[in-house]
Write a structure and sequence with these properties.
The structure is a homodimer.
Chain A: H1 8-14, H2 20-24, H3 29-54, H4 57-61, H5 64-83, H6 92-109, H7 113-118, H8 120-146, H9 158-168, H10 173-183, H11 187-199, H12 201-216, H13 222-253, H14 264-281, H15 286-304, H16 307-336, H17 345-372, H18 380-388, H19 394-401, H20 409-438, H21 450-470, H22 475-494, H23 504-523, E1 529-534, E2 542-546, E3 553-555, H24 557-561
Antiparallel strand pairs in A: 1-2, 2-3
């Protein structure tokens, strides 16, 4: 209902006869501007996605993220051409408050927890030590470049270089996800790069802020450095704690939604978003919070809510993150166009080079140590892909616009833009051929069989027992303890119907059974008939229950035995 | 990632040692305020809903809408008590742009089209003539009350009374839906009240604006009145046209989403919201637009998108409209508290009385004419429920706040609030007992059988034939023509896989088959086995395909025939 119209309508009316044709139609764009433009942007993003897939060959060569940035560049060019001023840059607030959370939530909710926890040590090493290594490496070497007089960069201080290093060093989860979802490398390799990109958030937050505050301080005391180190733990662990609290509350809330199935999916989104916002509010790592929240609540929420609610949660989450992702890349393209840049070739080129070199060195050194302590080592091919997959994206971009104003900010913006475009376009487009060329181990496409599942389960218990006897408290020991704590206490509090739950193998069997029945029904023609065959132990013959007939058929053993 | 923090953090850092404990934690509420508060409101609404259903008896006596308003009143009281100033009223912009569309979309998408089109004439009569009747009836009789000197209301002009009448006369779809979904009256009665509440939007928009502009004019010419009449058609039919355009575009777009199933559900929401906003922008009826859009696209979109996408659409739509609905009633309660009211007992009491009387009279008179032209008449019990079900709600409330400022606005606000609370609480709570008492025909709970469906189909074709022969072009004739146009042209353009579509009975059979298979699988124990029994025409024996065994079992006819 058009309501907040301005007085113009009434004014037109008042003029009477002459303008009465005009009065039939009137336009009030301002009233609907905000939701209208948001909807149009989302629509553009979605239509662009459909467009790419109409030509089947295009997405198999060029990653979608590149195509989207390209669309953004064109859009930005059009806006720039029409208005003759820079198109609006992506608002950092919109990015961090509205676009990033859906993607991280989706990532956390569908995180394969087994490979993640199996490699948590390696991931943390890459995320924490690796990121610090990159920050200081890039910062100090760029400072070295600044000392060359011919480059006219002597006014860029060490602190500014380190600040720039802290924002350019972090691998971006959105960019990594967009590329790695398309190339299907093996699960371990995927989780190493992707896990690193998620967990480096705490390090990036702390270092970025530390250097930013150092830039504004007259002198830096050594105590400030220690505060920075302490703050890293607060930001990271605080985020985990916030996420855990909200995740458990979410699971507990879904215990009581049996009567109103319709709002069940809502709680998954509300609690995880609240965990993110709360963490943000206290300057903790929002990404850590939402990931922990999603991973923590998943198994309990899944058990509590109805199957259809769960389908809604799953599909809506995928849809939302896909839209966010699309918007981010388009905005990235749009924001690139304009007059925000200061070109200094040496600085920009050396930034790209140092980003590549320090990442490669970091992965080599860290993997050397990781491989010494693990039986299942990371091959040199995998190391190459880890180093090469260190894509930068919208987080760097938003961070660089948040820098306090100083005279070289536009140089940093230009360098960041080039690094992002270089990594997304050059590395993103060549990584698939390289994976093919190197014959990197791929993801297995089929789900594990029941037999494999039984063996994995059995081995877990066996290894937990061995670890307990040998006194070595490794991952299997802790996993076993956690599982015990979960079934003894958590499930009783958080699950609605808690009787001794069915073993996961029984559940899997039931699921397969159901799936198969649906497939059979879908394949069947009208003349076919679904039947259930049973061998009750108290009867010597098989019973066939068919839904077209009210009474069961009894089949004598002889009819079967001949064919078995 | 907490980014837009103010400089305070850096400042704290700069102070060094003393404040370094504080620097570990810092709070920046302002940064996350908007999304945080929205999320909290939605959370409150959802938790309130869960709360009601924990006590099973409460929602069966008191409608949920009343409980929610009550929660809102308490919340408003708390805010008023703490701040000592009126709590914020529901923003009309937020209501019309964000809260109303999901509810109307849900209503349109799940509108039972058969009863709706069968009764479209009656619904339009109630919605157009009935609403005009109520507006003028209430307006003129309140003007009469204003002439009584003892009431001190002589400064309220006739135009102001008519303006008030135009906003208080319209039955509210949100309130009607909330109450009628719980009382399960028969389909015809439901669609009459609900259809009226939706379609009266165009009338309300036009009359409200007309009187509002008249209030601001020095003199009113007769031509202005004709413009008003013309405008009604523009607003109503324009809304229909906008909705139809977007609905068909939506259906067409989903033809191309096969490769990216994940964003399919999005288009349903994007296009319908765009239709609403576009209609709003041109001052047409947004409600009509979104309803037509939803009804128009439904059958094509359903055929184009995947089953899981459709589940997502359905459940998300229900969830969203449920949340909007909840928020509206809570805000209604919150906004009631405060100092926006001017109490004038006679005016307020007579408003309530006139609303009741004019609606009852209107229904009686209009139904008298309707019954003269229909075989399937509206019984007097049904008439009573139609009159009694004329609930007012948030639309009136938002409209009254949008009135231009004049000295008696607070009186109108008070009267509107009382009418809404009276209809929602008194009528809403007594309608269920009354439906029981009068033994109003209820909704049938079971779905029609295949036999019934065949008969209905057959009768439709038969009646279309009879109408064609007799030269009387009634609803069956037009329905048949529309169906022909649809299968001949529309489906070819809008559906992805267009070969002669399966008859709806075949689809129903397949659905039943699938459902049954799932039930069988879920009921089956581990020892059981799903099999598919077929009688291929080229074999003399039945074939049993069981998923536990790779090769089929062949059953000789003799094994069956004995038992059939």
């Amino acid at each position: 209902m058009p309501l907040l119209e301005n007085i113009s309508w009434a004014a037109e009316e008042a003029q009477g006869n002459e303008s009465s044709e005009h009065a039939f139609f009137s336009l009030d764009y301002q009233h609907v501007q905000v939701p209208f433009e948001i909807t149009l942007w989302i629509m553009l993003a979605s239509l662009a996605k459909i467009g790419f897939h109409l030509y089947n060959k295009l997405p198999s060569v060029v990653p979608e993220s590149c195509l989207l940035i390209f669309v953004g560049l064109i859009m930005g060019g059009i806006i720039y051409g029409l208005n003759d001023k820079s198109p609006p840059v992506m608002d950092s607030d919109i990015f961090f408050l509205y676009l990033l959370p859906p993607i991280v939530l989706d990532a956390g909710y569908f995180m394969p927890s087994r490979p993640f926890f199996e490699n948590i040590g390696t991931i943390l090493l890459y995320a924490v030590v690796g990121t610090i290594w990159n920050v200081f490496g890039i910062g100090f070497s760029l400072y070295g470049i600044c000392q060359v007089k011919a480059f006219h960069l002597q006014d860029v201080s060490l602190l500014h270089n380190l600040l720039f290093g802290s924002l350019i060093a972090a691998v971006d989860p959105v960019a990594v996800l967009a590329v790695f979802e398309e190339i299907h490398v093996n699960e371990k390799l995927h989780i190493l790069v992707f896990g690193e990109s998620l967990l480096n958030d705490a390090v990036t937050v702390v270092l970025y802020k530390l250097f930013r505050s150092f830039c504004e301080m007259p002198t830096i005391k050594s105590v400030d450095v220690f505060v920075g180190v302490g703050k890293f733990f607060v930001v990271g662990l605080g985020g985990v704690l916030v996420g855990l609290t909200f995740g458990m509350t979410a699971a507990f809330t879904t215990r009581f939604t049996k009567e109103i199935r319709v709002i069940e999916p809502l709680f998954v989104f509300l609690y995880s978003y609240l965990s993110y916002l709360t963490a943000e509010m206290f300057h903790l790592s929002g990404i850590m919070a939402i990931i922990v929240c999603a991973m923590g609540m998943k198994r309990y929420v899944e058990a509590n809510i109805s199957l259809k609610s769960h389908t809604t949660v799953k599909y809506f989450m995928k849809m939302w993150s896909s839209v966010s992702d699309t918007l981010i890349f388009i905005f990235l393209g749009v924001s690139t166009i304009g007059e925000n840049h200061e070109w200094n070739w040496p600085y920009i080129c050396f930034t790209v080079i140092f980003c590549l070199i320090w990442r490669a060195l970091g992965v080599l050194v860290l993997t050397f140590f990781v491989n010494r302590f693990h039986v299942n080592t990371i091959t040199s091919k995998d190391q190459f892909i880890i180093a090469y997959g260190g894509l930068r994206g919208a987080i760097c971009f938003s961070l660089v616009f948040l820098l306090p104003d100083f005279h070289r900010k536009k140089l940093f913006i230009a360098a960041t833009t080039v690094v992002i475009l270089f990594t997304v376009f050059v590395q993103g487009m060549t990584i698939r051929p390289l994976v093919d060329l190197l014959a990197v181990k791929r993801k297995r496409e089929s789900a594990p069989t029941v037999g494999e599942q039984i063996h994995i389960r059995f081995l877990d218990h066996l290894l937990a027992g061995i670890e307990d006897i040998s006194g070595h408290w490794g991952q299997y020991y802790w996993k076993d303890k956690l599982e015990y704590f979960n079934s003894k206490y958590l499930q009783k509090i958080l699950l609605r119907e808690y009787d001794q739950p069915k073993s996961s193998i029984v559940l899997l069997y039931e699921k397969l059974e159901r799936k198969h029945a649906i497939e059979l029904a879908e394949a069947g023609q009208l003349g076919s008939n679904i039947c259930l065959l049973e061998w009750p132990s108290h009867l010597s013959q098989a019973v066939l229950l068919c839904h077209s007939s009210p009474q069961p058929f009894y089949l004598p053993e002889s009819a079967w035995m001949a064919q078995l």
